[in-house]
């Protein structure tokens, strides 16, 4: 198991990004972009609510557990959940799909190279995670595609290595506010996802991180797929300089 280490990171106050622990709220330039970060379940998984508050449309990234909690937050803002977006096919990230879809009617979105993998989960894995298998994807995406809720667009960045269809979701900077990237298990705070599972490839993962993520604007905020570090977020610059696996 790769050790997880973290450098110190903090976000600012005022009208921009506000960090007060969990959940995290990002209000960007008066455009009504809402971001909430939740640690859910028993496996330190981060799930995210991303919404256009003006259009009242939302999506969840990897809503793997504690569906009541997630939907309470959506209801608090009177949001319609349009999509469940999975960063990759592993059961700990997709095991909440069935309940979320049943309760909201949301469509499941995953990278095209992970769609088939999501439907073939060993029974032993389901038992270990006390999980239900995910329904099939409604929408498959590729590199550069956009997933939209209202006026908020998340750009798909294909980052294979942890899984063949692993992907990150990038929200561009607006006005004086930094961009955001939701990295799933491609990049953690201070570490990265494992590559010893079927379909994993260390060299592919390193290429993905160095050429697809570290080339983003350096102040981009990193929102990882697990809470494996003392702080729940980082920046691209911090990870490029200090990540224990992919630094320098």
What do these coordinates show?
- The chain has 248 residues and is α/β, with parallel strands linked by helices.
- Helix content is 21%, strand content 27%.
- The protein contains 7 helices and 14 strands.
- The strands form 3 sheets. Strands 3-4-5-6-7-8 form a 6-stranded mixed sheet, with helices on one face.
- Strand 9 and strand 10 form a beta hairpin.
- It is globular, with a radius of gyration of 16 Å.
- The chain starts with 16 loop residues before the first strand and ends in a 6-residue tail after the last helix.
- The model is unreliable at 1-30 (pLDDT under 50).
Set out the fold topology.
Elements: E1 17-18, E2 25-26, E3 33-40, E4 45-52, E5 57-61, H1 67-76, E6 80-85, H2 91-94, H3 97-104, E7 107-111, H4 115-118, H5 123-128, E8 139-141, E9 146-149, E10 152-158, E11 167-171, E12 180-184, H6 202-213, E13 221-224, E14 234-235, H7 236-242
Parallel strand pairs: 5-6, 6-7, 7-8, 12-13
Antiparallel strand pairs: 1-2, 3-4, 4-5, 9-10, 10-11, 11-12, 13-14
Q: Indicate the CATH class.
A: Alpha Beta
The CATH architecture can be given as 4-Layer Sandwich
Strand residues, percent: 25-35%
> Please, what is the CATH homologous superfamily?
Ribonuclease Z/Hydroxyacylglutathione hydrolase-like
Number of spatially distinct domains: 1
- What Rg, in angstroms, do the CA atoms define? 16 Å
Number of strands: 14
Low-confidence stretches: 1-30
- The secondary-structure element order is EEEEEHEHHEHHEEEEEHEEH
Main pleated-sheet profile: 6 strands, mixed
Count of alpha and pi helical runs: 7
Mass-distribution shape: globular
Q: Largest sheet, order of strands side by side? A: 3-4-5-6-7-8
Give the averaged pLDDT, no decimals: 88
Straight-line distance between termini:
21 Å
Helical residue percent band:
10-25%
